[in-house]
C-alpha cells in the first residue's frame, strides 16, 4: 500500500470539518428544541435527525478517504458542492461572513480531492478495473 499524500489527509480533514459543523448544527437544533425555543418543534426534530445522519455519513466518507478507499471520492465531492450551495443561499440572505467561510472551505476541499496526487493515490491503476481495456 502506498503512502498517503498530504492532499488526501487535508481533504479528509476538510470533510471532517464539515462533519463537525453538521453535528454541531444538529446538536444545537436538538438542544433548542428540548428547551422549548424552537419555532416549530415538529420540523425541528426531523431536521435534527437529518443533520446527525448527514454528519455520520460525511464522517464515514472522511474516514474512507483517509483509508484511501476510492468510493469515498464521489460523496466527498458532493458534500463540498452541497456546502457551496448552502453558502450561496447564506450569501443571498445577507450572511456574508458565514457564506464566505463556507465557500472557502468547500473550494479548498474540492481542490484537494481533485488534486492529481489524490487521484493517483485513490486510483493507482489509472481508474481501470480488472480486465477492461481501452481500445
From TrEMBL:
Membrane-crossing residue ranges in chain numbering: 41-63, 75-91, 97-123
Keyword entries, A-Z: Membrane, Transmembrane, Transmembrane helix
Name of protein: Integral membrane protein
Lineage start: Bacteria, Bacillati, Actinomycetota, Actinomycetes, Streptosporangiales
Amino acid at each position: 500500500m502506498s503512502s498517503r499524500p498530504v492532499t488526501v489527509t487535508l481533504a479528509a480533514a476538510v470533510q471532517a470539518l464539515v462533519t463537525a459543523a453538521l453535528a454541531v448544527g444538529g446538536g444545537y437544533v436538538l438542544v433548542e428544541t428540548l428547551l422549548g425555543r424552537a419555532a416549530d418543534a415538529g420540523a425541528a426534530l426531523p431536521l435534527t435527525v437529518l443533520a446527525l445522519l448527514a454528519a455520520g455519513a460525511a464522517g464515514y466518507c472522511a474516514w474512507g478517504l483517509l483509508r484511501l478507499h476510492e468510493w469515498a471520492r464521489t460523496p466527498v465531492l458532493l458534500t463540498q458542492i452541497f456546502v457551496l450551495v448552502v453558502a450561496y443561499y447564506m450569501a443571498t440572505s445577507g450572511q456574508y461572513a458565514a457564506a464566505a467561510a463556507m465557500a472557502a472551505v468547500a473550494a479548498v476541499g474540492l481542490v484537494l480531492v481533485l488534486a492529481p496526487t489524490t487521484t493517483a493515490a485513490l486510483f493507482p491503476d489509472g481508474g481501470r478495473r480488472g480486465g477492461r481495456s481501452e481500445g
